[in-house]
Amino acid sequence: MSSMLTHAIRNLPTSSAWAARVFARSLSCSSQLQAAAVQPKSKKTLAKSGVKNIVVVEGVRIPFLQSGTSYADLMPHDLARAALHVPRDVVDYIVYGTVIQEVKTSNVAREAALGAGFSDKTPAHTVTMACISSNQAMTTGVGMIAAGQCDVVVAGGVELMSDVPIRHSRKMRKTMLTLNRAKTLGQKLSLISKIRPDYFTPELPAVAEFSTSETMGHSADRLAAAFAVSRLEQDEYALRSHTLAKKAQDGGLLLDVVPFKVPGRDTVTKDNGIRPSSMEQMGKLKPAFVKPYGTVTAANSSFLTDGASAILLMSEEKALAMGYKPKAYLRDFVYVSQDPKDQLLLGPTYATPKVLEKAGLTMADIDVFEFHEAFAGQILANLKAMDSDWFAQNYMGRKSKVGAPPLEKFNNWGGSLSLGHPFGATGCRLVITAAHRLKKEGGQYGLVAACAAGGQGHAMIVELYPQ
């Protein structure tokens, strides 16, 4: 693994004007990618008789930032509306994904749409499915278009980890609600007299499983140990992610990133978590979860991130009628669930063979892989599980392994470890990155996969639109 990694390292205008800008941006992005693109090999299309072709017309995201930085004073819907770079007058429906909801704007999709100037007649709803929330938003949009309910859907995701809800303790909440119903001064004083110091201890949110109370980092450490993924391998992979992300950022490949003028601050133009280090510096960090012998550290884990993303989905017929050149087709997809204790982060391992079989493809047919990197140990454990006949036979009920993606096709423009991971927004980034990489690298099929809390996962096939 060491040698493999070393090699791999070698304010809003009118809708009509906005639509014109999106169209122009689409053409600009296409020309930039085309400049050095490799012509794709000719393969069969995955179109199915009687099934609508759903296309990605455009996909954008505001820069993903480390929590507590430039977005710290905003609310989630502020980020979400900033990502709605789409022609407002043609959108039939909006779906957004998020994980940690702001109680004032629980349906963040609706608040973002209104704040971005969409018609109040445009319906919007919000979904949540942990780290695959925007994946769920996208496939919800696909389903609505395929069913003939809509022609144009915006799917996206948002997360603001700089300001998460912190609750009073259950005892204090109960007392306060009862106090609100008290009618006499005596009743109120009686309730107040029962308050004890421990009532004031707040309930802090944690990235932990409700069913097991285990933090995701602790689970990642156990998973890495179960698949014998060493600290060295994890640090090498994390360094690879940051190095490739820096190269992609400097090379102008991250075309989905749009500038965001933060109210009262400067305009943010790029992700701020990309920081290539050195193996020596990374090796100095202590374990973050399983102490003192764990292998998961701050350097080989994704960081708490603020950000938002959005993708414009249409039926192919509608997109062509409007004069758009789609970027990609969204083809088959699957969702999976498994034991949230011992297999919490193995979603890609279970979802990948299923989506390949559904699409009639093999691993060799895939030109681009975009997998969510929650932890380096999680990614490497999945790759080992996918390449294990024993695991396939004993845990997945399969006759043989599906095989691991080759690293030369895998997350070549960085991943969540380096670009950041706003829980509800990562899925859209994966899909639009896959589309851009297919065009740039001359491929036809991309495979997007991600794990999520609750032991769930998602995988989808992305097919390049004919050039």
From TrEMBL:
Biochemical pathway: Lipid metabolism; fatty acid beta-oxidation
SUPFAM superfamilies xref list: Thiolase-like
GO cellular component: endoplasmic reticulum; mitochondrial fatty acid beta-oxidation multienzyme complex; mitochondrial inner membrane; mitochondrial outer membrane
Coiled-coil annotated residue ranges, if any: none
Catalysis performed (reactions): decanoyl-CoA + acetyl-CoA = 3-oxododecanoyl-CoA + CoA; butanoyl-CoA + acetyl-CoA = 3-oxohexanoyl-CoA + CoA; an acyl-CoA + acetyl-CoA = a 3-oxoacyl-CoA + CoA; tetradecanoyl-CoA + acetyl-CoA = 3-oxohexadecanoyl-CoA + CoA
Keywords annotated in UniProt: Acetylation, Acyltransferase, Endoplasmic reticulum, Fatty acid metabolism, Lipid metabolism, Membrane, Mitochondrion, Mitochondrion inner membrane, Mitochondrion outer membrane, Transferase, Transit peptide
Function: Mitochondrial trifunctional enzyme catalyzes the last three of the four reactions of the mitochondrial beta-oxidation pathway. The mitochondrial beta-oxidation pathway is the major energy-producing process in tissues and is performed through four consecutive reactions breaking down fatty acids into acetyl-CoA. Among the enzymes involved in this pathway, the trifunctional enzyme exhibits specificity for long-chain fatty acids.
Record's protein name: Trifunctional enzyme subunit beta, mitochondrial
Species name: Pelecanus crispus
Taxonomic path: Eukaryota, Metazoa, Chordata, Craniata, Vertebrata
